[in-house]
Design goal:
CATH class of the largest domain: Alpha Beta
Number of helices: 11
Order of helices and strands: EHHEHEHEEHHHHHHH
Shape: elongated
Structural class: alpha/beta
Number of domains: 2
CATH architecture of the largest domain: 3-Layer(aba) Sandwich
Oligomer: single chain
CATH superfamily of the largest domain: Response regulator
């Protein structure tokens, strides 16, 4: 159980920020810091106990990078995703060790506030379907050993939130070569999207460093 004292909202929506700033501090008796994703610093994060990320204005890759950054901090910080997309595969964002809540894009503010109340009491508020792990058979676990060293390196690079262009620079190859490696790796591990590949890599890849 953790006690929420200081919250941070990461969003590019001034309207949402102003709405929540007028409500949450009074409703939950917390200090709310409002910031854009580009302005988040490690020092600023260290002062928080709950970080709320607005997925309607913060792209999934940036949200993943922010959560990874929070995971590495010594402070006990939890993340909450609001306006979570229903039609986009973003399950790779959910990490029960740091994610305390996820609220869909069509959830009402009242529903979110109720869920945050649960979180303040030390519980989690994550939809059941987002907590379901994909079995090795579905994710192609049996074919993991068939990955080449380079394919493993590329998959590992996805975990840092790197784009294809970033990975190409890191490995000193062309972007088209990275796309080829990803295509072959996706087929071997049985995934069809970048999000699924990241989820697979979180579970199966630990030894390769790029």
């Amino acid at each position: 159980m953790f006690k929420v004292i200081r919250w941070m909202l990461i969003s590019r929506s001034r309207l949402l920020a102003e709405l929540l700033d007028s409500r949450w501090p009074q409703e939950f008796l917390v200090k709310l810091t409002l910031t854009e994703p580009e302005k988040v610093s490690e020092h600023l994060l260290m002062e928080q106990t709950l970080v709320v990320i607005d997925l309607a204005t913060v792209d999934l890759q940036k949200a993943y990078q922010l959560q990874r950054q929070i995971e590495r901090l010594p402070a006990s910080i939890r993340t909450v995703f609001v306006q979570y997309p229903r039609k986009v595969d973003a399950k790779f964002l959910i990490n029960p060790s740091v994610t305390a809540g996820a609220f869909y894009i069509d959830d009402s503010l009242e529903f979110i506030s109720h869920g945050l109340g649960d979180i303040m009491n030390g519980r989690y508020h994550i939809p059941g379907e987002l907590l379901k792990t994909v079995g090795d058979d579905e994710m192609g676990g049996d074919d993991a050993d068939n990955l080449t060293i380079r394919e493993r390196e590329v998959l590992q690079a996805l975990l840092s939130g790197s784009t294809n262009q970033d990975i190409a620079r890191q490995l000193f190859v062309s972007e088209s070569t990275i796309k080829t490696h990803l295509y072959r790796a996706f087929r071997k591990i049985g995934v069809s999207s970048r999000g699924q590949a990241i989820a697979w890599a979180q579970t199966h890849l630990h030894e390769v460093q790029v």
